[in-house]
Specification:
Two copies of one chain form a homodimer. Chain A is 33% helix and 16% strand. Chain A has helices at residues 2-7, 137-151, 164-175, 194-209, 225-239, 242-249, 269-282, 287-298, 333-345, 363-366, 372-380; strands spanning 17-25, 31-42, 52-56, 83-84, 89-90, 95-99, 120-121, 126-127, 158-162, 182-186, 319-325, 350-355. Chain A has two domains: 2-192 and 303-380, Alpha/Beta hydrolase fold, catalytic domain (Rossmann fold, 3-Layer(aba) Sandwich), CATH 3.40.50; 197-293, Rna Polymerase Sigma Factor, Chain: A, CATH 1.10.1740. In chain A, strand 1 (17-25) and strand 2 (31-42) form a beta hairpin. Chain A is of the alpha/beta class. Chains A and B meet through helix 4, helix 5, helix 6, helix 7 and helix 8 of A and helix 4, helix 5, helix 6, helix 7 and helix 8 of B.
Chain lengths: 381, 381
């Protein structure tokens, strides 16, 4: 029995799959002759096809929520701590599906499958660049719906996601109310606030400033990598919290022999460490995709721009478990509380839980195991 | 009497003056053959020279705290609502001095006087650029001290400042404890937090990304204006608060005929309005000065880098009135409370007041009148 419980700690090796759709019409009314997204699954779909849980990902993420592609992968999927046999999202019970978004950032990781500005436009034989149509989170959800149609899944036990993934969970519950039994939105609100709009802009704007951006026509030449890295830096500092940054880095110089007082080019450790981390993320990303992902998120405003979520939230009927990080700077806890109060007012079965962490927004990945029991019991009832 | 009280609402026309120092040695140990800063004053210095109040400015500000230079100036100085005859900082009683910082941002406003990377290096006859030495807030304070020496002022009734100005007030109290009777630090802490360091970096980094930056050697050619504007944009969004941004702009498109869903180049109003405001600020600034001001602030860490403030705050003896904006995102209220608790522990006469505003950090200018009675009575006792 003990051996068996050890084996059961991971979903093991997972296989990336591709879903392809032709002539997809975007929420904005433009046609994509081809739209592809990657997906992967953990657990087994039951005969009644009634045990599926969908996991849309956060802004800089992809489908890879659990397990490893190869034994020697450095890290498993981002939510491996809560997805697996016997874990909060129990793959002994559920068929769990992770999906890539359109215009996904990670075009260079060798595994993400997405259609976006870096894709070849079949009409021209060249990358779309800035001619790619604007897409938004409801587009992501519509592609997921088509994938489920193909798999013959007509009901979802739950949609669970964090950040941009939480927003897609809201969109699912509003767009397909008869199809979604439960949602677990973790640190994300159904109506993007004006402050989030302008903050997200600071993640994208450096790309346009980069000398190599060239109005998006950089394919085959030097890329605006420095701009993308600065965008990721801004995203990263918005995703952390003062308490955590102080704990991690303090005030040390990046190089103890190169005091920031002595030369303008010397750096603090906190600054250089976060810049390094940001550059690693940006190295996996197509810079134009950063512009499109930013816009996709900025457009997610309840009741507008093709978003199915009514501002009154009255079209949401799925049982809802809202989890919110106490120290989140991108989606403040107070906003999530307002959402839950509104849902309850409308008669929706909704509950609110705050995850106590000093880690800021990124705790939705780094500390999600703290919500294990909450999620497990919510999925059971 | 009524006419008289109307006349008394302003300090009237003020005159910018210049202070010049030769062979100034920076905190970092470098020599500036010439260092100049501008200053201005309101009210009259009494015979005993005992009624002076010093006002160091915030990050993007300058000496111009009250009055107008010319009758037709569009706006008076930034704290005109609290500095003037009969106002909180009463120029019928006090001689109030505003001072420009070294490496001041506003080199292009036609009135700021400062020495920094855009100044001509007397040794080369060319602008310093990145060869200018790093300076920090204690340098600013040392120059202010030299100015006061020249004016024959040996005691200060108070040092009052907001943000970077608040930090200079702490520095004054720590560096010259026998000279400063009172300080009023408004939304600023005596030890820059690691989070503030990385946030400030996001104000400066876009300058280096701009194709025209050229390692700081852009004088006489095209300037990295777009980079400076993006830096100011980041500074601006950090200086506001979600509640205020939502109230001001909501989710409208910048142009109602150009929906952000329809093209990647269409903007939201919140984004374009803040970008416009940021570009106006940046148009007054030398981009290299933004790098140096950022570093000056990043270096203000209690007990290090030449900062006179001891981490224990034990060297601060001036009566201290700390005012903090409730919704400040750059200097969270909680940090200021810790400072006041420490000061009290040390036996310093210190009090804490929270300014209730949904405006974020910028309320230190826009809503400072709300603190009028607090400041007035503190200066009286």
């Amino acid at each position: 029995m003990e051996t068996s419980s050890v084996v059961k700690t991971s979903v093991g090796i997972v296989r990336k799959q591709s879903f392809h759709l032709e002539n997809y019409i975007t929420v904005g009314g433009r046609k994509l002759r081809e739209a592809s997204i990657g997906w992967e699954s953990y657990g087994t779909l039951n005969a009644a096809k009634s045990n599926a849980i969908l996991i849309p990902h956060y802004f800089s993420g992809n489908s890879h929520a659990a397990g490893k592609y190869r034994e020697d992968d450095a890290l498993p999927g981002y939510w491996d701590s809560i997805i697996g046999p016997g874990k909060a999202i129990d793959t002994n019970k559920y068929f769990v599906i992770g999906v890539d978004s359109l215009t996904n950032l990670n075009t260079k990781d060798g595994i993400t499958i997405t259609t976006g500005p870096s894709s070849i436009n079949p009409d021209s034989g060249k990358p779309y660049g800035m001619t790619f149509p604007v897409v938004t989170l409801p587009d992501f959800v519509r592609l997921q719906k088509s994938l489920l149609d193909q798999l013959g899944i007509t009901r979802l036990h739950a949609v669970i996601g964090c950040s941009m993934g939480a927003q897609q969970a809201y969109e699912w519950a509003a767009a397909y109310p008869d199809m979604v039994d439960r949602i677990v939105p973790i640190s994300g609100v159904p109506s993007q606030k004006a402050y989030a709009l302008v903050m997200i802009e600071s993640w994208a704007a450096p790309v346009r400033l980069d000398r190599h951006w060239n109005n998006g026509n950089y394919y085959g030449g030097p890329e605006p990598a420095a701009g993308a890295a600065l965008g990721y830096y801004n995203l990263l500092i918005d995703s952390l919290h003062p308490e955590l940054i102080a704990t991690l880095y303090g005030h040390a110089a990046a190089d103890s022999g190169l005091a920031p007082l002595d030369a303008i080019d010397h750096q603090f450790l906190c600054e250089s460490a976060l810049k390094t981390q940001a550059a690693l993320g940006a190295a996996r990303a197509d810079p134009n995709h950063l512009l499109y992902m930013a816009r996709a998120c900025q457009l997610f405003i309840a009741g507008t721009s093709g978003c199915s979520v009514d501002p009154s939230l009255k079209n949401i009927r799925a049982k809802t478990l809202v989890i919110q990080v106490r120290t989140d700077l991108i989606f403040p806890s107070a906003d999530a509380r307002v959402v839950v109060a509104k849902l309850k007012e409308n008669g929706t079965d909704a509950e609110f839980h705050e995850l106590d962490s000093s880690g800021g927004h990124l705790a939705i990945v780094n500390e999600i195991h703290k919500a294990s029991n909450l999620i497990r019991s919510f999925l059971d009832r």
